[in-house]
């Protein structure tokens, strides 16, 4: 009997995210070995046990050859992009903490398989790290494969007898498709059962791929021969054939199988891609000629002398790797390609390195209208994977034996055509072109069109446009690219303007977020008036960098960056936390020497913590709480020393401290709980205004023994920098 081997492949679990762009989908990359007859996915989803965890629906997408192209938000794809729905399932986590799901695929295609999983659409609320604990949703995908180690090989042109033991044990065989096969014919004959009755079998040719499967089925009943002809089978690949018995359980079935190919062979050694068909004598000498199909459409008739006629005209193409997921295809004979009506012109686009499926394949055709003498002639083109389309004049749907290509056409009325293949599967891709005439190919004899071909692989089409950012994503060693959109734009390449902000709205957002920082001017004026020059310097620093950080942080066209974005962001965060730090310490009214030591030491520690985690809530809350402890301790000390409450004035509490504290609490509430992606530009502007106003209210009054703006008194002595008073004396000796 046959020897089966089971193998198991596992990858570490990933934490799922709510979906807003492709980077939120967690990708799993597996490789299915050859001769696999059964593939089983084990999908395990789990959630945390905390009260914040609720029921959730997880969407899982599958695809062979490339990452799945998904559209959970229902946005628009770019024009000329090819979109085919992904195969997906839903896993629900309700009351159960864990869910285990199995997905089976019989006779799967060998090679790369991808799984992408994500949660529903993101709510858009901006979460402050540390204020809320999101529920962890975990997902893990494992793969079991059942592989046949001794799968029989069906040799082309050689009849092969086989036996199907029982309906429970189907027969698996494979045949290798040569590189230049234009057609294949499978024939089954001499089918009898062990009970000498008419047999009934079902034959499955090809492997299953997702999201679309083009596996061909053939049902044979009785002893008569049955056959199936395939156009453009996949070149240089093993083709699986499964024979299942439809008879009684105990009866075995004997049969004979034959596979034969029609081939376009390379015709000249001088051009390594110039293939010409076999002449009649060569075809007759082949063992499988009896079962060969008719010549490929577009092939010129062979005459009695056996003159070679061209099956297809191929143009040599050089693949030029530019960067990660970035390839340019250069035609050796120039960008202009001659296209005739007699046979298709073929270009090979190599995308089989295993690292090319994470980008977008772009094919652009430009017709030289002066080269076409026929006004109504059309150049039809097909872009297909695994095998080329060689019958463009017979059918326009660009289908091959086991895949569906993508049609293109250019004519004198429409001289340009573009095709974008999102995440092209790992394979050899082909571009076929042929000149078609509306009245028949007889009118096109001798005519030739010149078509300029531009083909390239890019990480993101059009670099995601002006309202998107192309991000290179990684899953272990596999790299793929996706667009992250901004300013309300959406879609795969950020071309969907359904929810886009207008330029006026973008300008308004920029003005609000930048000019709201000018509310620090009253706080700076109060600090200078009360002689808190260090504090005023910190507020000026914060106002400056917050203004220009938000001018650089805008998603749309209203952007101005005076320096590196990361530097501006760091300086903005540092200024914000240090402003709170120095304000609370100033309110504490500690001795100046201690205050300035705490200023410097606290600023250094804040700078360190922001470098460790810039968005952590404790980077702001930690210094605030520590400064509040110092302030409370200082106020208690002052109150005990004076034997009454501190600050002692009720006016100070009613008109300054309580309004300042109220503004600060409202600002923190807006910052932590109200900000979303949609309202960010005005809620964050409110945060700027409230914080700046609270600082102006909370700053303590100046020392009673100091007169404002007494600059002349400060410079009366040449050597004495600071005034002599009862508390401190600084003398330069």
Automatic annotation (TrEMBL):
Record InterPro entries: EGF (IPR000742), NGX6/PGAP6/MYMK (IPR021910)
Alphabetical list of PANTHER family matching this protein: FIVE-SPAN TRANSMEMBRANE PROTEIN M83 (PTHR14319), POST-GPI ATTACHMENT TO PROTEINS FACTOR 6 (PTHR14319:SF7)
Record-stated family: Belongs to the TMEM8 family.
Compartment(s) of residence: Cell membrane
Gene: Tmem8a
Biased composition (Polar residues): 304-314
Lineage: Eukaryota, Metazoa, Chordata, Craniata, Vertebrata
Stretches the record annotates as Disordered: 286-314
Disulfide cysteine pairs (residue numbers): 460-470, 485-494
UniProt domain EGF-like: residue ranges: 456-495
Record membrane topology: Multi-pass membrane protein
Location (main, coarse): membrane
UniProt source species: Chaetorhynchus papuensis
Keywords: Cell membrane, Disulfide bond, EGF-like domain, Membrane, Transmembrane, Transmembrane helix
Protein name in UniProt: TMM8A factor
GO cellular component: a single term: plasma membrane
Transmembrane annotation, as ranges: 508-532, 593-612, 618-637, 653-674, 680-699
UniProt feature, compositional bias: Low complexity: 286-301
């Amino acid at each position: 009997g046959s020897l089966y081997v089971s193998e198991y492949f596992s990858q570490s679990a990933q934490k799922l995210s709510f979906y807003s762009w492709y980077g939120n989908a967690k990708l799993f990359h597996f490789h299915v070995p050859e001769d696999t007859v059964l593939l089983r996915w084990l999908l395990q989803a789990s959630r945390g046990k905390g009260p914040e965890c609720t029921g959730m629906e997880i969407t899982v997408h599958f695809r062979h050859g490339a990452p799945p192209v998904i559209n959970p938000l229902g946005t628009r794809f770019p024009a000329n992009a090819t979109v085919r729905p992904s195969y997906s399932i839903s896993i629900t986590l309700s009351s159960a903490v864990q869910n285990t799901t199995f997905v089976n695929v019989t006779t799967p295609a060998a090679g790369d398989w991808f799984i992408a999983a994500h949660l529903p659409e993101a709510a858009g609320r901006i979460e402050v790290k540390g204020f809320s604990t999101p529920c962890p949703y975990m997902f893990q995908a494992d793969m079991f494969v059942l592989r046949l180690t001794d799968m029989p090989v069906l040799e082309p042109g050689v009849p092969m007898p086989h036996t199907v033991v029982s309906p429970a044990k189907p027969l698996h065989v494979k045949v290798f498709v040569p590189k230049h096969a234009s057609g294949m014919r499978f024939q089954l004959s001499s089918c009898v059962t062990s009970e000498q009755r008419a047999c009934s079998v079902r034959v499955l040719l090809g492997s299953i791929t997702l999201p679309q499967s083009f596996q061909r089925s053939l049902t044979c009943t009785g002893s008569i021969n049955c056959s199936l002809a395939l156009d453009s089978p996949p070149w240089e690949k093993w083709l699986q054939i499964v024979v299942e018995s439809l008879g009684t359980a105990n009866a075995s079935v004997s049969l004979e199988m034959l596979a034969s190919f029609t081939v376009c062979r390379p015709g000249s050694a001088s051009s390594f891609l110039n293939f010409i068909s076999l002449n009649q004598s060569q075809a007759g000498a082949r063992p499988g000629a009896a079962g060969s199909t008719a010549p490929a459409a577009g092939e010129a008739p062979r005459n009695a002398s056996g003159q070679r006629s061209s099956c297809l005209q191929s143009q040599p193409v050089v693949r030029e790797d530019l960067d990660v997921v970035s390839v340019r295809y250069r035609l050796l004979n120039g960008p202009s390609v001659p296209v005739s009506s007699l046979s298709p012109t073929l270009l090979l686009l190599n995308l089989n390195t295993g690292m090319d499926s994470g980008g977008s394949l772009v094919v652009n055709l430009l017709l030289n209208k002066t080269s076409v003498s026929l006004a109504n002639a059309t150049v039809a083109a097909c872009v297909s994977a695994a095998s080329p389309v060689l019958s463009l004049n017979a059918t326009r749907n660009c289908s091959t034996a086991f895949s569906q290509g993508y049609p293109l056409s250019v004519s004198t009325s429409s001289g340009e055509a573009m095709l974008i293949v999102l995440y092209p599967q790992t394979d050899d891709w082909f571009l076929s072109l042929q000149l078609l005439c509306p009245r028949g190919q007889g009118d096109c004899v001798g005519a030739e069109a010149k078509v300029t071909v531009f083909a390239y692989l890019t990480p993101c089409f059009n670099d995601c446009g002006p309202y998107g950012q192309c991000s290179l994503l990684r899953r272990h060693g596999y790299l793929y690219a996706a667009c992250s959109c901004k300013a309300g734009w959406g879609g795969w390449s950020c071309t969907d303007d359904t929810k886009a902000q207008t330029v006026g709205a973008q300008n308004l957002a920029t003005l609000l977020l930048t000019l709201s920082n000018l509310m620090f001017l009253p706080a700076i004026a109060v600090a200078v008036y009360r002689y808190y020059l260090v504090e005023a310097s910190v507020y000026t620093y914060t106002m400056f960098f917050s203004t220009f950080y938000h001018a650089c942080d805008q998603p749309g066209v209203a952007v101005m960056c005076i320096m590196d974005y990361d530097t501006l962001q760091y300086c903005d965060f540092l200024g914000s936390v240090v402003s709170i730090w120095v304000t609370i310490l100033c309110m504490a009214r500690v001795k100046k020497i201690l205050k300035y030591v705490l200023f410097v030491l606290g600023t250094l520690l804040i700078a360190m913590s922001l470098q460790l985690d810039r968005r952590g809530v404790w980077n702001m809350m930690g210094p605030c709480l520590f400064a509040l402890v110092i302030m409370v301790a200082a106020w208690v000390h002052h109150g005990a020393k004076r034997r009454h409450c501190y600050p002692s004035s009720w006016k100070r509490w009613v008109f300054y401290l309580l309004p300042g504290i109220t503004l600060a609490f409202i600002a923190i509430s807006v910052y932590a709980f109200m900000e979303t992606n949609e309202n960010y530009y005005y809620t964050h502007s409110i945060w700027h205004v409230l914080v700046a106003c609270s600082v102006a209210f909370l700053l303590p009054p100046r020392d009673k023994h100091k007169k404002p703006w007494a600059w002349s008194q400060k410079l009366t002595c040449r050597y004495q920098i600071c005034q002599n008073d009862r508390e401190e004396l600084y003398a330069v000796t």
